[in-house]
Amino acid sequence: MTKKFLLGAATVLLALTSCHNDNTNTEPSVSFDEVLTTRRSVRSYDPAKKISEAEVRELLKATQEAPSWANQQPSKYYVAIGEEKLKAAMEMIGANKDRVADAPVLIVSTFERGKSGYFQGQATNEVGEGWGAYDNGLSNCYLILKARAMGFDTLIMGMRDADQLRALFDIPENETIMAVIALGYRNEEPTHPDRRDLDDIVKFF
């Protein structure tokens, strides 16, 4: 009886261990350095792969961790994920339309003016609204890095018709429309353009 009990217990323990190992092996393990080096501006997307609203929410939640002037959090996002809005937005990004036609999501990035860089309604230095754009860039950076960590790819696009986008998404007049970001899965491996030498951009004193 004791031998049978021990044999049964050992079998259960082995099964549990195997199950744990299987779960561990399926968990993604991407280092931060890998996220940085594999993040590329992707201009060809897989039309067969879609992204859910829940996944986009998880992605955009990461942007809320980005730093901003006095924690003003000026960045806003407008997501075209439904077929009608996505098709309409595609017509408002100029020549980039052909590059991201198969991307399942387009995200319009804006920032509220008069927040970052301001104190009691006055600009605190010569940069002025540039601080809003700066904070929006930081927020966008969190977005594209989180996207890569989730296995997605992106393209930040500055070619866009701001007036048409404002009307399509009912964007308030006090928000500056910065970029449109394509989100999807790469359809081909993008190139890795050369970067400037570190000594060209850094000075130590």
Question: What do these coordinates show?
Answer:
Helices cover 43% and strands 16% of the residues. The chain is built from eight helices and six strands; from the N terminus they run H-H-H-E-H-H-E-E-E-H-E-H-E-H. The strands form two sheets. It has a four-stranded antiparallel beta sheet, sandwiched between helices. Strands 3-4 form a two-stranded antiparallel sheet. It is globular. The longest helix is centred in the N-terminal third of the chain and has 25 residues, at 2-26. The protein has a single domain (32-184), classed as NADH Oxidase (3-Layer(aba) Sandwich), CATH 3.40.109.10. It is an alpha+beta fold and 205 residues long. GO terms for molecular function: oxidoreductase activity. Belongs to the nitroreductase family. Keywords: Oxidoreductase, Signal. Residues 1-21 form the signal peptide. This is Nitroreductase.
